[in-house]
Amino acid sequence: MLIATNGRGHAVKSPSEPAIGTMLADLDQGDHLILERQDENQDGHWYIQVWFRDKDTYQLEYRDGVPAEHHQTHTGSQDKVLQALLSWVAGKPAWQEGFMWTNIGHWFTPDTEGEDDPTA
């Protein structure tokens, strides 16, 4: 099941394309929108989210199941963000194209460096 949730806690189950577009357009500066796939039979978290940052900048992120597969990009185009969101929802394989993605998975995974070193 797909669930869309905004920063104010408003959630929509199985949102339509127009509903997703409206939720994106209604974001206030500093607000966010998350589209999450929830499946009891699938481990991990699968979602795409957008934050409306300052100066009309959108921060777009997605996670493919595990923290190590968390990526981020920025754009000034609401239209590009909307197309990415809708293509992700539709499962179109090329939805990531047109962005410069950075893997930020290390922000969400524990630092294991020095775990085997008793002096660390």
What's this model, at a glance?
The protein is an alpha+beta fold and 120 residues long.
Instruction: Give the distance, in angstroms, between the N- and C-terminal Cα atoms.
Output: 44 Å
Q: What's the pLDDT, averaged over the residues?
A: 88
Look at the helices and sheets and give the structural class: alpha+beta
The geometry reads as: globular
Strand order of the largest sheet: 2-1-3-4-5-6-7
Query: Count of DSSP helices?
Result: 2
The ordered H/E elements are EEHEEEEHE
Unreliable sequence segments: none
Observed structural traits:
18% helix; single chain; 32% strand; 120 residues; globular; 2 helices; alpha+beta
What features would you describe in this structure?
The protein has two helices and seven strands. By secondary structure, the protein is an alpha+beta fold. Strands 2-1-3-4-5-6-7 form a seven-stranded antiparallel sheet, covered by helices on one side. It is globular, with a radius of gyration of 16 Å.
